[in-house]
User: What shape does this take?
Amino acid sequence: MAAGRRISGQAYVYGSAAQAAVPERTAAQERQRKAVRLERQTQQYQRMQRRVRRNQEKALQMDLPYVLMLTVAAAFALYICVSYLQVQSSITGRIHNIEVLEQQLEKLKSENDALQTRINTDIDLDHIYQVATEELGMLYANKDQVILYDKTESEYVRQYEDIPKRQQ
Assistant: This one.
């Protein structure tokens, strides 16, 4: 094994593992090396730029099927938008119509209620009783004049049908 120690930035290796000394590069060699590396990087960048430009040109080329498909898609999207606006307009119109009808219904209900109240207040039951008893000679029926009967054959009574006689 080789043991080594460092003295003032240089490494000393003892034994057979010592490597051949590499001569230090001069400043001119270092500048040349950097220039070569920079030139390689520039060439790689230019190649990459050419590839990118070719890909962009390919992407920008539009052939006939692509244009037709794009036109059909745009027309379909336009049709959907116009249809949506028509449906939205129709719904808005119907909602407005419903509001108008509801207002009319509310007005008719209030008029009907007012008329019903007026009719109820115009009926004078005392006057009706007075006319019936005094002018027409009507009287309340006695208990022996009221005939009660059960009819279970149907749920309604025919006006001209005979009334069954009361059994006692």
